[in-house]
Amino acid sequence: MPLPLLRDEPWYARTFDRAWLRLYAHRNDAEARDDAPAVVRHLGVHPGQRVLDVACGAGRYARALSSLGLRVTGVDLSADLLTEARERSPLLPGAPQYVRGDARHLPFSGQFQGAISMFTSFGYFAAREDDVAIFRGVRRALVPGGRFLVDFLHAPHVRSTLEPTSSTRQGTLRIDVEREIDEDAPEGPVVRKHVVARDAGSGQLVAEFDERVRLYLPAEVDALLVEADLELVGDRMGHVDGRPLTDDAPRYVRIARRPR
User: Fold this and answer.
1) What pLDDT does residue 8 have?
2) What pLDDT is recorded for position 93?
3) Residues 162, 181: contact at Cβ < 8 Å?
4) Fewest CB atoms within 10 Å of the CB: 147, 190, 198, 250?
5) What global pTM score does this model have?
6) Domain span at residue 186?
7) Domain containing 77 — which CATH number?
């Protein structure tokens, strides 16, 4: 039976707030700083050049790349996460710029030497064409030859490790999660999560939200990029550090570029 949706509005328009950020605190600045040198290497960018962070969230990768001398613009739909990003960024030299907007309608043209999409930041929409629209917008935003790094879930790993339910403690919170793969979703399977966080002592509800992400195979991600007129570069990877893609790799990382 499909997991319930909390309201009729799209889940991505209501889920990404400060409570969500608290539950994903393990996705922190230290992880982004560790990844940043490899991201720079894959993009082939240099200090002073411009990088677009698509669905930047609270800006952890934008900050990490800015600290390496890049001029970063982050785009996200969530006002709460962008407020958090600005609060965390004010003292950085060359602080990132943040723009609120829908990733399907990026307002840039030929301005960036590189672009990133980190931590499964697409695949949220009802139609595959919406994901192609994101990639087309990235292509427009890049200069000819500019590179795009995509970091997405790895579908075989998700299928082999998915736990239908879990209950964990994170600080003072008890987090209960239900998960399922909806094989009958239009245009291909999706992973659904229903998350409830309560105060472990009082039982008071702290947050409740849904997530829904399309379960693209690596070949399908590649096809989206090609459809958006981006050229695939190099081999498929299982992490931003460049390790090969294997069945047990939790991530799928791909580099593409705007044709020269």
Assistant:
1) 55
2) 67
3) yes
4) 250
5) 0.92
6) 157-214
7) 3.40.50.150
